[in-house]
C-alpha cells in the first residue's frame, strides 16, 4: 500500500526539481548531468569534490550548476568571479546560519565593519606588545619547553586556545582575559554556534531551504541557543570591568589610566549610558566578532603549522630570517610593529598555505535580483552562488608554474602580502566586502609562527607531508601528530 505513495512522492519531487532547474524565462547556466535521482550531485560533491569540479569545469565551462542538498547551486570560475565580488547591487554574502537568531541584539549592530576598524584594526600598532606577550605566554602554557620531543595530535583545539588569548586581551581587556572560562568562550563559541550546520541538510530534498528554516526557527523561538552559556560568561566579566572602570574613573579623575581595548571604546560611545548598561547587547556584539575572527584565524594558523611540520627542509631558511628579525626586538624580546614587514619569507609561506588550504568552492552568495553575466548566462533572484576558487588557485596563468604544488616562496617579490586581496587571491573575499579583520589575523599568525620557528624544530610524526582532510568541498587541517622539539 505504501508503494504508490513512495513512487508518487519521488515523481513529485523529481518534477519539482526539473521545474526549478530549467527556467524557460532565463538563459540559465548549464546543469551538469547527474546519475542519481533525488540526491543529484550530492554524492560526488561530498566524496570527490576536487576531481568532480575539474571535470565539470572541463565539460561545462566557467559557470555551471549542480543539484546539491536539494537546491541548484551555481559555481563561478576564474573568468567571472570578479562580477560576483564587485556587484554589490546584485550579490550579497549568503548566511549559512542566522546569527541574528542566536545573538538577538545584533539586529542593531549594523555598523560592524566600522566598529571593528575604528576600535581594533586602526590600533594594531598599539596592541603589538600585548599580542606578542599573550601569544608567548599561551605558547609556553599549551606547548611547553619540549626539552624532550613532544608529540601533539589534532592541534586545532590547542591552536584555537593560543589564538584566543591575545584576542580576548584586545577585546575584553587584560584582566578578564586571564580567566580560563573567558578563553574557553573565545575558543569554543564558533564551534558551538555552528553545531546545527553539521547536521546534513537532508530535509532540503523534501523542499529547498526546509532544513535552514527549521534550524533558524529553533534558534529564533529560543528552543535551543548554543551560545547562551558563553553569553553568560561574557556578561559576568563585562560587569566586572565596567563596574571597576566606572568607579576608578570617579576615584582617580584625570590621573586615571585609561585601558586600551575594545570594551573601553564601547564605554565611550555617545549612546553608552552608565546608569542603564545593556550588557546583553554588548555581549552579543562581542560574540559576533568572536565568531567572525577566532575560527578562521585558528583554522588558517593550524594549516600553516601543519605545512611547516610537513616540510622541515624549509625550516632553516625561515629560521635564519626570523633570527634577523629578532635583532629588532627590545630588551624583553618584543618586536616593533614594523618588524612584520621584514618577515617576507614567512609571509610568503603563510600566503601559500592559505592558497592551498582554501576550500574547493566557497564564499557563498545569493542574488538580490535576476542577473545576467557578461557571457550572457542568467541566474534568477534568490539563487545560490559559490565561487569555484580552485579554478583560481590551480591556474598557472594566475599562480605561476606548478600551481598544484606547495612552493613556500612563490609569493616573494610580488608586492602582494598574505593579507592583500587580488584577482588571483580571494582567501579574504574581495571588493568592498573583503574581510575587514584580515590584517589582524595575518599579524597574529606571523607573530605566533615567528616565536614557534625560533623556539622549536617541527616535523610530522609520520615523517610525511600531511595534507588537509576533505569533507565535501571543505579542507580541514589534518589531525596527524606533530613533533615539537626544543631548538638546541
UniProtKB/TrEMBL annotation:
Residues reported in the UniProt entry to bind heme: 435
Subcellular location: Membrane
Record keyword Metal-binding present: yes
Family in the record: Belongs to the cytochrome P450 family.
Alphabetized InterPro entries for the sequence: Cyt_P450 (IPR001128), Cyt_P450_CS (IPR017972), Cyt_P450_E_grp-IV (IPR002403), Cyt_P450_sf (IPR036396)
Reported cofactor(s): heme
Pfam families cross-referenced by the UniProt entry: p450 (PF00067)
GO CC terms: membrane
SUPFAM superfamilies noted in UniProt: Cytochrome P450
Protein name: Cytochrome P450
Keywords associated with the record: Heme, Iron, Membrane, Metal-binding, Monooxygenase, Oxidoreductase, Transmembrane, Transmembrane helix
GO MF annotations in UniProt: heme binding; iron ion binding; monooxygenase activity; oxidoreductase activity, acting on paired donors, with incorporation or reduction of molecular oxygen
Top-level division of the source organism's lineage: Eukaryota
Organism: Rhizophagus irregularis
Amino acid at each position: 500500500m505504501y508503494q504508490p505513495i513512495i513512487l508518487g512522492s519521488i515523481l513529485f519531487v523529481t518534477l519539482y526539481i526539473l521545474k526549478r532547474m530549467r527556467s524557460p524565462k532565463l538563459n540559465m547556466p548549464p546543469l551538469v548531468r547527474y546519475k542519481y535521482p533525488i540526491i543529484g550531485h550530492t554524492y560526488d560533491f561530498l566524496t570527490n569534490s576536487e576531481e568532480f569540479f575539474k571535470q565539470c569545469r572541463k565539460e561545462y565551462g566557467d559557470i555551471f550548476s549542480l543539484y546539491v542538498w536539494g537546491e541548484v547551486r551555481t559555481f563561478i570560475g576564474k573568468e567571472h568571479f570578479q562580477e560576483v565580488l564587485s556587484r554589490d547591487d546584485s550579490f550579497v554574502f549568503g548566511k549559512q546560519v542566522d546569527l541574528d537568531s542566536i545573538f538577538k541584539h545584533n539586529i542593531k549592530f549594523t555598523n560592524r565593519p566600522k566598529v571593528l576598524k575604528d576600535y581594533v584594526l586602526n590600533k594594531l600598532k598599539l596592541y603589538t606588545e600585548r599580542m606578542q606577550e599573550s601569544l608567548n605566554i599561551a605558547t609556553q602554557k599549551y606547548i611547553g619547553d619540549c626539552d624532550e620531543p613532544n608529540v601533539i595530535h589534532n592541534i586545532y583545539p590547542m591552536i584555537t586556545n593560543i589564538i584566543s588569548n591575545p584576542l580576548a586581551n584586545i577585546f575584553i581587556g587584560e584582566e578578564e582575559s586571564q580567566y580560563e572560562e573567558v578563553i574557553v568562550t573565545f575558543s569554543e563559541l564558533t564551534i558551538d554556534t555552528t553545531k546545527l550546520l553539521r547536521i546534513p541538510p537532508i530535509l532540503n530534498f523534501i523542499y529547498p531551504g526546509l532544513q535552514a528554516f527549521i534550524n533558524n526557527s529553533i534558534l529564533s523561538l529560543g528552543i535551543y541557543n548554543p551560545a547562551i552559556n558563553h553569553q553568560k560568561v561574557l556578561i559576568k566579566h563585562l560587569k566586572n570591568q565596567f563596574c571597576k572602570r566606572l568607579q576608578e574613573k570617579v576615584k582617580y579623575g584625570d590621573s586615571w589610566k585609561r585601558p586600551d581595548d575594545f570594551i573601553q571604546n564601547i564605554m565611550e560611545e555617545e549612546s553608552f549610558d552608565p546608569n542603564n548598561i545593556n550588557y546583553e547587547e554588548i555581549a552579543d556584539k562581542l560574540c559576533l566578532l568572536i565568531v567572525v575572527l577566532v575560527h578562521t584565524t585558528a583554522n588558517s594558523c593550524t594549516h600553516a603549522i601543519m605545512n611547516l611540520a610537513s616540510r622541515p627542509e624549509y625550516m632553516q631558511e625561515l629560521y635564519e630570517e626570523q633570527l634577523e628579525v629578532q635583532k629588532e626586538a627590545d630588551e624583553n624580546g618584543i618586536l616593533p610593529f614594523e618588524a612584520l614587514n621584514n618577515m617576507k619569507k614567512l609571509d610568503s609561506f603563510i600566503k601559500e598555505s592559505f592558497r592551498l588550504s582554501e576550500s574547493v568552492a566557497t564564499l557563498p552568495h545569493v542574488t538580490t535580483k535576476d542577473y545576467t553575466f557578461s557571457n550572457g548566462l542568467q541566474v534568477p533572484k534568490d539563487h545560490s552562488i559559490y565561487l569555484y576558487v580552485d579554478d583560481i588557485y590551480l591556474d598557472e596563468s594566475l599562480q605561476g608554474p606548478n600551481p598544484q604544488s606547495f612552493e613556500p616562496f612563490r609569493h616573494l617579490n610580488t608586492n602582494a602580502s598574505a593579507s592583500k586581496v587580488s584577482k588571483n587571491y580571494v582567501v579574504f573575499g574581495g571588493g568592498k566586502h573583503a574581510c575587514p579583520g584580515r590584517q589582524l589575523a595575518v599579524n597574529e599568525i606571523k607573530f605566533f609562527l615567528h616565536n614557534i620557528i625560533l623556539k622549536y624544530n617541527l616535523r610530522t610524526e609520520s615523517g610525511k607531508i600531511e595534507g588537509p582532510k576533505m569533507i565535501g568541498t571543505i579542507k580541514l587541517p589534518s589531525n596527524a601528530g606533530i613533533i615539537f622539539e626544543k631548538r638546541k
